[in-house]
Amino acid sequence: xxxxxxxxxxxxxxxxxxxxxxxxxxxxxxxxxxxxxxxxxxxxxxxxxxxxxxxxxxxxxxxxxxxxxxxxxxxxxxxxxxxxxxxxxxxxxxxxxxxxxxxxxxxxxxxxxxxxxxxxxxxxxxxxxxxxxxxxxxxxxxxxxxxxxxxxxxxxxxxxxxxxxxxxxxxxxxxxxxxxxxxxxxxxxxxxxxxxxxxxxxxxxxxxxxxxxxxxxxxxxxxxxxxxxxxxxxxxxxxxxxxxxxxxxxxxxxxxxxxxxxxxxxxxxxxxxxxxxxxxxxxxxxxxxxxxxxxxxxxxxxxxxxxxxxxxxxxx
Length: 316
Description:
CATH class of the largest domain: Alpha Beta
CATH architecture of the largest domain: 3-Layer(aba) Sandwich
Strand content: 15-25%
Mean pLDDT: 89
Radius of gyration: 33 Å
Helix content: 40-55%
CATH superfamily of the largest domain: Periplasmic binding protein-like II
Number of helices: 11
Number of strands: 12
Distance between the termini: 83 Å
Largest sheet: 5 strands, mixed
């Protein structure tokens, strides 16, 4: 006899296993047919196919009704486990309970996203989901998109993210620019900067990739003007400290600038040219779109960003 384990499952009607489960439970073709919603002849035919498949009568007649053979009894437990596992594959995803969940999320974002979102986000996670951990790293957009698709990254947060098939994105906030100078800087005495006064100062540029050029330089070029970048640094962290002790001017994201101005002797002034800000998005891949835990995390990030927007509205 060829064992069922050695058979090609593609050649087996797996519905027969559901019929066998009902027959073993009911010990009656009539009751099994009623349970399955089949006719009695169809169920009898299925029983004969099962006997042929297993090479055993499985159920035999006795004065008390159908009785299971030793082979059928041996099949009962593994059959129940197998069908239970199959049924679980059709269940929806398990509910996510942040209070008891133990899970880690990988998020890619640059200095700005980390600075603006992480303090409040971590406070929220620590209060609602003490078993949830977060790993933050810096990726390029292209690298981050690949890692989202591969499942190595959960969220990519930052500006300039494009719509791509198979990915989702959600607007978090729009960031404006302000000029940052040290408190007491002569150029800040009038409460505003003229274009000429602004361009007469040495500028600080944060260039994560170490290359010149920015939205400021593009806007100035459209006016036929240019600035002198006296200091170019790769990270936002050092910029406010350098500006606080020098005559440099830094054209900075407003949320970051306001936070540093509360800690350091800095003055914030409007930028003297029309300068577009940037939109910060969170992006994720379709593979995790319906994951309840992932959806919960996205909602927390969005709520923190929304709170940041409300602060800006109060300050306007």
